Structures are given as C-alpha cells and as structure tokens.
Q: What sequence folds into this?
C-alpha cells in the first residue's frame, strides 16, 4: 500500500477580508430584537431598583414616626408653642423629606437614563 499524502483543504474565502456586520444598538431597539429586549430589560430593572429604594426610604422615614411616638410616649405628650409635637413634626418635617427624596429620585433616574443612552450610543 502506498502512503496517502495529506492535502490541505481550504475555502477560497479564507484569504478574503472578514466583514463584521455591525449596526447600532438603536436598530436592535427599534426592531425589537432579542438584544434590544435585553437592553430594555436592564433599563427597566435599574428603574425598578431605584423606585423600590425610594419607596423604602419614604416608608422608613415616614413610617418610623408613629413608631417613635409610640415607643417614646413622652414625645407624643410634649408641646412646643402650645402645639403637640407630633403635629409639628407632621406639619414641618414630612414635606421637606418628600421634596428631598423626590429630588434625589429624579436626579438618579436621569442619571440611569443618561447611562443607558451612553451605552446605546457607544454600541
């Protein structure tokens, strides 16, 4: 028997330059491809985390007030300028907490959306 020689088999396209199909992620978002859906889900998860964190801050801050007045009964009976302390706290402290928390939430939401836009534009 004769020794068969090895013959390399190659495609005629091996020397051809490779073309990479590359289009922006915005196209994936517009066409609602699977990759676009992944990007949108990640944005929605980030927004949900932020909303839950903001809600938790508000629940702890405002839900803690009745607990404090229950645990320390002397506070609920005390008066400042003839007005019960719980009323003053509700009238003067709750609104600034809401405003500060809302401003923080808006700033964080805008940052999240800006980061998402940067990622989409870079891709």
A:
């Amino acid at each position: 028997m004769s020794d068969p020689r090895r013959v390399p088999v190659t495609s005629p396209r091996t020397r051809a330059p490779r073309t990479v199909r590359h289009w922006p992620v915005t196209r994936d978002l517009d066409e609602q491809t699977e990759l676009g859906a992944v990007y949108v889900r990640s944005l929605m998860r980030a927004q949900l985390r932020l909303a839950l964190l903001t809600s938790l801050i508000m629940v702890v801050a405002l839900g803690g007030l009745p607990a404090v007045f229950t645990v320390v009964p002397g506070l609920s009976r005390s008066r400042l300028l003839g007005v019960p302390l719980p009323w003053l706290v509700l009238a003067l402290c709750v609104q600034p907490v809401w405003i500060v928390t809302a401003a923080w939430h808006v700033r964080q939401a805008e940052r999240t959306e800006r980061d998402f836009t940067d990622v989409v534009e870079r891709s």
